[in-house]
Design a protein that fits this description.
It is a single chain. About 50% of the residues lie in helices and about 10% in strands. It is an alpha+beta fold. The strands form two sheets. The protein has a five-stranded mixed β-sheet with strand order 5-4-3-6-7. Strands 1-2 form a two-stranded antiparallel sheet.
Length: about 290
């Protein structure tokens, strides 16, 4: 059932975080020029530092009573964030996280991942904790989100430097199942707030299916999103490869390119409703790496 977290998913997420974090740290250390631009905005070192800010924050999310917040002066901004203010928030957080030496960043990342795995070891993976934008995300979703940050930003660095960067679909699927569906099943806080357009009153149901994820339907109605079991009432049915879908949703590849690969297929009785759905159910999607993270 969508939203439920199994023991095997939890073990897979913990194993993936360790392995993906090691690969990311090794790639950052092996980069010949840490000042090489990943995009016009960030270098390799700045991209690695961005991922480091997230990893340094997560032990405090998981154990707020025993772990101090690494960015206490901007905690209010973090809790008030929306998808559309994430880029500005990233800049604020990077202003407080000043390390740019690749080897030190890699060392810190490994240590923070160790702390995350220790902090979460005895927690219920389905227990919700307070996240960006005052959303409530299950513990396993927090781990899955960091895996996705490593995968997406690892893709950014690899594309810029020519490094090899495999992205296993099963690892990418953890973000969809544990983080995205997990968050919507609980509470997504301010994240999808949009003051520029009135909410769409029409009910739009989009069914998502992949070999690597639990089938689920997301329903948008009156500007709010909920999760349902798949059924006959879907307007749109979307079959997807998790890696391709995430690269598309985070603005790394275009919708046209995703469709042309055959790895994101849209069908169903009313496929023209998908753009209206995605205007609300959106992820930070600018092509530079300021927006895909937190």
């Amino acid at each position: 059932m969508a939203g439920e977290i199994t023991h095997s998913q939890w073990e897979a997420a913990r194993s993936s975080l360790r392995e993906t974090g090691e690969r990311f740290a090794d790639m950052v250390c092996a980069t010949r020029d840490p000042h090489a631009k990943v995009t016009a905005e960030w270098s390799v070192a700045e991209t690695a530092a961005h991922v480091g800010t997230i990893a340094s924050w997560y032990p405090a999310i998981l154990r707020p009573d025993t772990t101090p917040h690494p960015f206490p002066t901007i905690e209010r901004d973090i809790l008030a964030a929306t998808v559309d203010t994430v880029a500005q928030l990233n800049d604020m957080v990077l202003g407080h996280y000043t390390e740019r030496d690749p080897r030190v960043l890699a060392q810190r990342l490994r240590a923070d991942i160790d702390d995350i795995l220790r902090a979460s070891e005895d927690l219920d993976p389905g227990m919700p904790v307070t996240w960006l934008g005052s959303a409530r995300v299950p513990v396993a979703g927090v781990v899955a989100h960091l895996i996705n940050e490593l995968l997406i930003h690892g893709w950014d660095i690899a594309r810029a430097t020519g490094a090899r960067w495999p992205m296993p679909p099963a690892d990418a699927a953890l973000f969809f199942d544990l983080f995205l569906i997990g968050m919507i099943s609980h509470e997504y806080g301010h994240l999808l707030d949009d003051n520029t357009a009135p909410p769409n009153a029409r009910r739009i149901a989009v069914e998502f299916r992949s070999r690597h994820t639990v089938p689920v339907t997301m329903v948008l109605r009156d500007g709010r999103v909920s999760v349902e079991e798949p059924g006959p009432g879907a307007d749109v049915r979307l079959s997807f490869d998790p890696v391709t879908l995430h690269l598309m949703l985070f603005g790394r590849i275009s919708k046209a390119r995703a469709a042309l690969t055959g790895k994101v297929i849209v069908h169903g009785p009313r496929p023209w409703l998908l753009p209206a759905f995605l205007r609300t159910v959106r992820l930070p999607s600018n092509s530079h790496p300021r927006s895909p993270g937190t």
